[in-house]
Structures are given as structure tokens and as C-alpha cells.
Design brief:
The protein has 293 residues and is α/β, with parallel strands linked by helices. The chain contains eight helices and 14 strands.
Length: 293
């Protein structure tokens, strides 16, 4: 993409902390050692929409005239209307601003950038892209594969037209054969199901290939990249992927999982904000679907 600039990134997390103590001392210690997740932020009285609103207000600042609002989430507070339309009203945006939701998870931040950037290229000069989930609300308290891992967070990224902006490359992919391994069916009593072994196997193949393909497309090597910011599922997978991708530790931007857990599509922007990552960044999202970007 040309003439697309990312101006601001903001994140919002709920104040409530949840550690692993509910699993008992022995199990909790093993969970922390295996995943790197010591605690998560989880919603209590807040909602997904509340977190998005907080992040959006940070990213927008005094801006209230934007042309597009894209919300990427798998945990909306309502099925109808879209979360984007609710936020359109809360933020006092003009009626000329298009607003819609996208159902995407851990690859959702990169997907959202592609969609928002495409909107900017199409003629919408200012677009706000929100990405995040409240997955703590859809996991079973008895499921050791999901409950200890997932936290809640929202992000907001403001993009606008800039004739002098450097080239902005995005590549996304999907493989629907993996759909059964990470799913949440309809119904108030349904909980998130995750086949962790299959997720690990998928990521081990898809992420190094995606990194290599993007570098080739850009005509760059890892030496030309200031930092690689991956989706942050757990510490064990992150280190495995770093080695598979042959990224030096000093360029591998992490630091989310210990205090926040896996926060789905908000993990990449949260890592960027926490680490104050700047320069030429390579972002890598991957997750359910299968999907990656």
C-alpha cells in the first residue's frame, strides 16, 4: 500500500487482575512454567465496547471527524447491532463515517490493518481500526487449555492518508481445514474450544513461511527490520517461533503474556505500546481459521 500512515496506537485493559491461584499451588506453578502467563486482565463490570471506547478516545485525541471505523472482534457484546455502530454513537462520529465489524481473532490486527489501509487508499482519508477481544468471558473455568491463557484487551489504531508515507506492505492468508481446532459455537452455554497441539503445529509451519514471504515481497532481510512483533499466545510458543524464524532475541518484541496473557488481536498493538517499538516493524498475526498475516 502507498500513501497510508499509522499515526497513533492506543490500548485499553480492564483493571481486574486474575492470577493462576484458583488452580492450586502445584498446578498453578506448572501452568506459569509452561505458558509464561502469571496473570491476566479480565473484565468485571466493563464490556468489550467499554474497552474499545477507552482505546478509541486515546488514539483519536481531539479528532472527531473520521471517515471510517472498523472493529475487529470475536466477542462483541451484541450480535445486532454491530459494535462499530454502537461506538459510532458513543464517540459522536459524523453520519458520513462508515462503520462495520470484522469477525477475526489472533490474526485480526494484521487483517484489520489491511482492511483499514485499503479504505484509506480507496478515498477515506482517516480511518480508526479497533481490534480486541474479551475471551475470559467465553472460556470454561474448568478448562486448563484455555482459562489460564486468555485475557481481555482492546486496541485502537488511527490511519490516515499521507502522500509522503513509506510503503506499507500487508499479506494475509487462510486455511479453512483448521477451522475445527479453535472454535466457539453459538449459544450462551457454549465455551471456547482449543486444540493446543494443533495450534502449535499450525503456527510452527505458517509463521516462518509468512515471515519469509513478506521479507521477499519487500525485498528486505531481517537485518533491515528494526523489530519483529508477533502475536503473543504463550511464552513457550513465542520462543519456539523466534528460533524457527531465526530472529535475534533483541529484535523479537514480546513482554505481553506474563501480565496480560493471550489477548487475541490486541496482543500485537499491546506489545508495540509496552515496548515503545518504533522504526521498520514486521508484524505477525496467526490464529483460528486457520488464518495469518
Amino acid at each position: 500500500m502507498n500513501h497510508v500512515a499509522v499515526r497513533d496506537i492506543a490500548v485499553a485493559v480492564p483493571p481486574t487482575r486474575r492470577d493462576q491461584s484458583a488452580w492450586g499451588d502445584g498446578v498453578a506453578a506448572k501452568l506459569v512454567a509452561a505458558t509464561g502467563v502469571s496473570e491476566r486482565r479480565v473484565v468485571d463490570k466493563e464490556t468489550m465496547t467499554d474497552l474499545f471506547e477507552a482505546a478509541a478516545k486515546q488514539a483519536l485525541g481531539h479528532r472527531r471527524v473520521i471517515d471510517g471505523l472498523v472493529v475487529v472482534t470475536q466477542t462483541p457484546d451484541t450480535r445486532i447491532p454491530p459494535t462499530a455502530n454502537i461506538l459510532h454513537g458513543r464517540l459522536g462520529l459524523p453520519s458520513s463515517c462508515v462503520a462495520f465489524d470484522v469477525n477475526q481473532g489472533c490474526s485480526g490486527y494484521v487483517y484489520g490493518l489491511q482492511i483499514a489501509g485499503s479504505l484509506v487508499q480507496s478515498g477515506l482519508r482517516r480511518v480508526l481500526m479497533l481490534a480486541g477481544d474479551c475471551l475470559s468471558t467465553v472460556v470454561s473455568p474448568n478448562d486448563r487449555a484455555t482459562e489460564p491463557l486468555f485475557g481481555d484487551a482492546a486496541s485502537a489504531t488511527y490511519l490516515e492518508r499521507d502522500e509522503d508515507a513509506p510503503r506499507f506492505l500487508v499479506g494475509c492468508g487462510s486455511d479453512g481445514k483448521g477451522a475445527k481446532h479453535l472454535r466457539l459455537d453459538h449459544g450462551d452455554t457454549e465455551c471456547l474450544f482449543m486444540n493446543g497441539a494443533s495450534v502449535f503445529e499450525f503456527a510452527s509451519a505458517a509463521v516462518p513461511a509468512a515471515v519469509s514471504e513478506m521479507l521477499e515481497q519487500a525485498g528486505l532481510t531481517l537485518d533491515d527490520i528494526d523489530a519483529v512483533v508477533p502475536h503473543q499466545p504463550n511464552a513457550t510458543m513465542l520462543e519456539h517461533l523466534r528460533l524457527k524464524c531465526k530472529v535475534p532475541a533483541e529484535k523479537w518484541v514480546i513482554g505481553v503474556v506474563e501480565k496480560f496473557g493471550n489477548v487475541s488481536s490486541a496482543s500485537i498493538p499491546l506489545a508495540i505500546v509496552l515496548n515503545e517499538a518504533r522504526g521498520r516493524l514486521l508484524l505477525v498475526g496467526f490464529g483460528g481459521g486457520w488464518s495469518w498475516g
